[in-house]
Model the fold of this input.
Amino acid sequence: MSAAAAALLRVRDLTVDFRTDEGWVRAVEEVGFDLRPGRTLGLVGESGSGKSVSTRALVRLLPASARIAPGSSMRFRLRSGEEMEIAALSPRDRRLRRLRGGEIALIFQEPMAAFSPVYTIGHQMCEALFAHPEAVGGRLSRAEARERAVEMLARVGIANPALRFDQYPFELSGGMRQRAMIALALITRPQLLIADEPTTALDVTLQAQILDLMQELRAEFGMAMIFITHDMAVIAQIADEVAVMYLGRIVESGPAREVLRRPKHPYTQALLRALPRPEAGRRRLVPVPGDIPSPRERPAGCPFHPRCAHRLPGRCDRALPPVVEVGDGHRVACVLFAEEGGR
Amino acid sequence: MAEERGGLGAEELRYYTASQWQLIWWRFRRHRGALVGAWVLLVLAFMGAFAPFIAPYSGTARDRDYVYGPPQIPRFWDENGFSLRPFVYGVKTERDPVTLRKIARVDRDQRRYLRFFVEGEPYRLFGLIPMRVRLFGVEEGKIHLFGTDELGRDLFSRLMFATGTSLSIGVLGVLIAEFLALVIGGIAGYFGGWIDYGIQRLTEVVRVVPVIPLYMGLAAAFPPEWSNVQVYFAMTLVLGLVGWPTLARRVRSHLLAQRREDYVLAAELAGARPAWVIRRHLLPSFTSYIIVDVVISFPYMVLSETALSFIGLGLRPPTISWGILLQEAQNVRAIEQAPWLFIPAVFVIVAVLAFTVLGDGLRDAADPYAVSRR
Amino acid sequence: MSAPLVEVEGLAVRFPVHSRGLFRRRVGQIHAVDGVDLRLERGETVGLVGESGSGKTTLGRAILRAVPVSEGRIRFHLEEGEVDVLALAGERLRRFRRHMQLVFQDPYASLDPRMTVRDIIAEPLEALGLAASRAEVDERVREIAQRCRINVEYLRRFPHAFSGGQRQRIGIARALVCNPEFLVLDEPVSALDVSIQADILNLLMDLQDSFGTTYLFITHDLAVVGQIARRVAVMYLGRIVELAPTEELFQRPLHPYTRALFSAIPSLEPGRSERLVLAGEVPDPAHPPSGCRFHTRCPFARPRCREEPPELRALAPDHLVACHFAEELAP
Done:
């Protein structure tokens, strides 16, 4: 594919297992996607879908009980143009430190998790600048670092940035903290921002503010973004491409507009149907039958088949469905389309 | 919707219907160190409880023929041949021609065969059942597995009795401390407000008093004419009175945390009375924690008893405890000539370590719901 | 449908703020709920929408007497007569609890992990002594479990065996087992995955159809409330700013805050026009703004808003709004 050549990040066959008391449990299985510079990929899924685990694997921030299976590949193109195979690094490799924060930044649902409570916000932003001289164009003086940090705080919409610079994270309100976390992540101008449900804990009015801000900053800095969420509507607002995950596998992926308008996989369709619309009128919703199984009880064959209205007995419960391209970049892992594609 | 995924395995069904205690046990079982600790403690407790049966002699019986005698190790063969039944050598007492002191000499020609379930001096098991049978003994003469002390008393027998005393003092001390902690911490945690505030400050006052002088003061208050039984119970009371504040704090914080749980509010809104809430929700929610607390604070009790008796402030002879045995070992002659008198120290160390590992394992297993919540 | 079941008038809940230390002086108070009037008719669902800090949860719990009420009146019109709920205390309040129950947001924290599903559901019956025998308790538990689509085989199990959606069904069964006339649902689907939410909402609607229970449905999610509620009240900083039948509110939101809430909902159709994005955050409820509490964030605020608190007034039949300039601003 031509897109692959220009890709900032190419993930292939990413598989992550966790060691538990009951043995190995597969959290992510054979996940693959490409991400080009400046694009936003939305990773959408419910609990247990492996959307967070797969991005943690990208920066090798998995717990000690996790193992990236051999054969997984995550190729990232550094600023220098050099390609790095993240899956091959040892968890203690020094190059990881350059990668995290310098090339790839993360923001989380809970901003207090991103900050140390005992240092001021400004101090932590300057630390990031000093830690990644290669990303910010050489060693900075204290005054230069401060200037850049204050500028960044102002850019994310924090009033009185010079004052906030010297404050501790707990002194900020919830929305301010969220903005400060974004400022901290972006101060090194990373090539890729991973946002793990950054707006889930926020009230809707704040969520709207933060989503707008992230859109603006992404365009301005030209960085790529992986946006993790469980909310299809948020994906519609922010993502160029979308990958829908269920029980550790990508079941459908493609351009966001296309996938949301013409969802092909029964799971994507069901998820969109189950979404309450902001319209009045008491009516029954169309629920997805059954419960999400726990990853340790992963069904054989297609992971969604026990809940699927279109399952083909004898096929869906036997083998994994093939991935079929149904449109330009729109791929579905479902036997229903394998048939059509084959004829 | 309810009938998803038919055909549950027996294994899964067992998990789904498992109560809190079953979950705790399943998790505890995987903790190998804690299991070893539990076994060690069971063996020690068994020794203490059945001390008169296991010990070949009473704790005060003297063997005038074997004073400061080294441990006798049962053997199966020597230059005189092999025997299926283990034996120890006989001893002869002679007078040292120079110092005129009695010394025990091993007579390698005389074999004393070890026999099990022999008739010994009469005793009462648990102070009730009159019995004569002892676990083991020799037919003629005596056997001293761990040697004897300066009065010719059998150290092995004394150690069995001491184990019983020290562990039971620990148990009683912990029970008293835990009872006080439950009442005081429970009141503080359940009522909160200024009652909690007052109790908290009182706890702090008790906690800041240095422990050793407090022990000394309390122990010095025991009248010398008290019987050993009285001193024994007074000791447990002292240990309990000093030990409760730490436990009380933990009870209080458990209670405060549990009271804020939604399910407690749910019960109150369901019309439950306070007694119901306490009985059905609060107490079960921290019984497992209380057990952990007890196990963890146990070694401190045992150590306190040992330390007090060691410096001569706790129990007094003829009561036998680990502390008293160690006290008797604290002279130059013991260190020089009778190192076996330090065997009780090994027991103390093993017991404390066993408690610590067990407490560790229990603590990990005590909250089986911590992990499953996401 | 005209007789109200629950009538709330001028309800206020204030939490004292204490200083630390031995002499815990009162240094201020938080106006969590400030003068709320609300009527719930028999068998209807009223949605209560607001963001964090709006006081919606406190209002729901105040009606259930789960938090101390500072001022106001709460009356229940039951078949056996009118009850002044705030006058109840002790044993009489306890006995009254069979008429009103709560469903919690967190399906994990709200079920005691040490009790079997049967014991959890049976708790209101047993605690209130509403059943004559153990057999009767079992019978009623089985009946409500079936109604809530819980497999009766599961009654012997413990909560750790269940997923969030199943747990929420257990919580609903516990709330309904004593046949309450009034149910407060405090964000009952917010903690659940999207594919499970619809199922719980459907269940709640089915149960209402068969039992005729009156629901106060608390949520931060306008989309959810649109599915289930007949009328919606929007709260901001302890006050109701708008109250209208659901369709009316969705078609013609009058309060600027309600309009902002609607425009903040991310839509599946990207790139809509005309959005009203609010600046700033909800102010600290210990120091609410003067006048109209929304004026600090309102894009249309005028000097009058800073001084004079607006009354909740009817602009159309049944459509109440607390804004001085609602007529002018109406789209």
